[in-house]
Every structure is written in C-alpha cells, then in structure tokens.
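STRUCTURE:
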C-alpha cells in the first residue's frame, strides 16, 4: 500500500520543500501551504483512493498505479502553482489524472470495446483485446462500455468526471482548462449519444450504478 510518507520520501528530491502563506481551506480542511511536505502528505492520504479508483475505472487496475503515481508527481512538482481560489485540490488532481489518461486513450477505448464484446467475467481471446479493467469497471454492462468507447475522448472525459468524480461544471472547466460553456456542450453531446445507445436510459444513472455496483 502506498503511503504519503513513502511516496514523498521517494520524490522529495525532485524539488525543495518551501513554505508559502496561501491557505488550503478548500483542500478538505487541510491547513497550511501545499508546498509544505506535511500538508502535501495529508492531501495525498485524503485523495489517493479517489484518484486511484477513478483511473482504474477508466484504464484498468493494471495501468492505474503508474498513472496515479505520475499524477501526484506532477502535482508535487507544481504544488507552488496551485491556486485554492480557482479549484479544490481534489478537482486539481482529477484534472491532472484526466490529462494523463488522455495519453492512453487507445488503451481505454480498446478496453471498453473488449468489455463491450466479451463482458466483464471472461477475458478476450487475444492479447490486444484482453480485458484489463478488473476493479470497478468490471461492473459496467457491455452495452454501456461499448457506448462509452464510441464517445469522443473529450466528451468521455467530461461525463466521467461528473459521474465518477462528482465534479461540478465549474470544477471541470478549471481542471481541464476549458471554458465553462464547453463543459456543458460536451456533457450534453455525451448524454445524447449515450441515451441513444442505451435505449433512452439516463447515462448518468447507469454510470453511477456501475460505479457503486
């Protein structure tokens, strides 16, 4: 199990630990500055499980560890740039993780397509189609997995940040660096496509059921 102490000990050499006066009132009640190693450690402990679960749902458990480690490494390196007035630490971390997931968009789409073809309970016959999503993603119904695979990556990012991470439109806009109105248009487009694929079923309810299944 990764802990804040072990993780920071392994990466603290990447940059000096400084102290700055900005408050982290929006970081789940953690006082102090994010550049303080102890504060960053508290944020790591508070957010690691959520970020890991989100990445595992999208890429599978086999690939989650590396992406989550890279997420916190980037956050650690850029911690002095974090602005609590713009977003919560949690939303900031989800934004970093989502951008890293985007580098694996082919893997995600392939995993979802394989899950759609073969279901969660047995592996696909070929190595390239092997179903790697073995955590929460295995509760996805094949038709939902196929529908998600067919979405544009940017639309999938937005709807999954709503359904899996519980972020608001404003938080998503800040996390992804896109206009507020773009979040709404992408979410609307994703919902429409998913509804069509799922027989007019509410896609957000279907995703929430899969998330808690």
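SEQUENCE:
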């Amino acid at each position: 199990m990764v802990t804040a102490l072990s993780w920071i000990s392994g990466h603290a050499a990447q940059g000096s630990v400084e102290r700055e006066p900005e408050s982290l009132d929006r970081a789940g009640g953690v006082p102090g500055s994010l550049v303080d190693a102890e504060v960053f450690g508290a944020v790591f402990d508070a957010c690691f499980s959520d970020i890991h679960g989100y990445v595992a749902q999208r890429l599978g458990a086999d690939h989650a560890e590396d992406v989550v480690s890279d997420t916190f490494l980037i956050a650690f390196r850029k911690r002095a740039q974090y602005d609590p007035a713009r977003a919560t630490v949690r939303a900031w971390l989800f934004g970093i993780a989502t951008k890293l997931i985007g580098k694996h968009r082919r893997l995600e789409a392939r995993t979802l397509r394989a899950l759609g073809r073969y279901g969660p309970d047995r592996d696909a016959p070929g190595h390239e189609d092997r179903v790697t999503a073995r955590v929460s993603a295995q509760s996805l119904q094949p038709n939902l997995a196929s529908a998600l695979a067919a979405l544009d990556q940017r639309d999938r990012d937005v709807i999954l940040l709503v359904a899996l991470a519980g972020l608001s439109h404003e938080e998503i806009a800040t996390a992804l660096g896109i206009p507020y109105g773009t979040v709404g248009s992408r979410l609307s487009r994703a919902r429409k496509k998913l509804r069509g694929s799922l027989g007019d079923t509410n896609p957000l309810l279907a995703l929430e059921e899969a998330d808690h299944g």
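REMARK: The chain has a mean pLDDT of 74.
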